[in-house]
Amino acid sequence: MQKLNDLSRSLIPLQPDGTLIAVIEMSLSSWLVAGIVPGVERQPLKKLEVDENALLKLLNRWREEAEKAGHRIERIAVAFEAGRDGFWLARWLRAHDIEAHVIHTSSVAVSREHRRAKTDRLDTELLKRSFLGWLRGERNHCKMVAIPTIKDEDAKRPNREHESLVGEQSRIVNRMKAALIRLGIRGFNPKLKKAAERLDGLRTPEGEPIPPNSLAELRRDMVRRRLVSDQIRQIEDARLERLKQAPSDGPHAMVHLLARVIGVGVETADMLVQEVLSRSMRDRRAVARYAGLTGSPDESGRRRREKGLTRSGNARVRRGMIQLAWRFLMFQKDSALAQWFRARTESARGTRKTMIVALARKLLIALWRLVREGVVPDGVVLRPAS
Prior knowledge:
The chain is of the alpha/beta class. It folds into 3 domains: 16-147, 2-Layer Sandwich (Nucleotidyltransferase, domain 5); 154-245; 252-373, no CATH class. Helix content is 49%, strand content 12%. It contains 12 helices and 7 strands. It has helices at residues 52-68, 88-95, 120-135, 150-182, 195-198, 212-245, 250-259, 266-277, 284-290, 315-331, 336-345, 352-373, and strands at residues 19-26, 30-36, 45-49, 75-81, 99-103, 295-300, 303-309. It has a 5-stranded mixed beta sheet with strand order 3-2-1-4-5, with helices on both faces. The protein is globular. The two termini are 40 Å apart.
């Protein structure tokens, strides 16, 4: 039986005489489709406009060519790399009874030459070799990405929009502070409710008011900041309303359980559930790898060194877990994880930043077990169930 999220190889036996294989090199303006058609010696290559119906017609035409050559096609397998287009094409192909896969981009081996030739045609050859090895059930040719439903993708949007808006708000505030400091004005907080009214009373060290163009710019920035702040509040209110309307829904129940951990807020809990904890992970190692909290060893001969984090996983989860690990040390001082961290950093200078990553990895696995198996980490204090 295939394990959860085990996408490193195909477990379906490959029948070369009855399988039509196609890979797509996608760009904004066109698709380059390469195929392996049973009974046809040439390996066709066709450039299409960005049109899913044209792709379906092309696959059906290749099927007819194979049948004319005496090969009955029972399986059509299509693959393309994960990228800007997301997963809509894979869902559309599966809805039309075509086996579709999305290849993890960094899992495809490429030439290590300093100036290697790179064209769409050469990229399709790489994809064909990798996809063929995957279909044969051989490991380490490439890895596939789990294709989410449109509902799962949509559930991530509020958190990601919230993160983007918070960053935009910080950029606006920093820009206003920099404009004031350039005039020699310090100690003014542009985030106060009456900040716009106080602008006219500000004076430079020379006793002059703020120049008119700079003043107009600051007022526009304040209006923009209030708009962003209102949008952030709308997202937060909508999140709380969703959790209140369906508290026992699968992801919502996970959010409520995580929010009971002292030190974990609703925003962090919702981000972790939507980005990682609601996914079907194979084991704890897969959870850590998905977050990019695993190491990248560099070993050759006698050389043994660590190059740091792989940073190949979900950056949002990685940033959130490292921030949560620092908060965890403040709010859960008597937990086994906090004691483990202190025991390894109290007498070792310069190790706190390194060990906080290890703590973040252990904490993520502990939270994953909490929402999946109901196992409360040792010494962790929970809020009373509401």
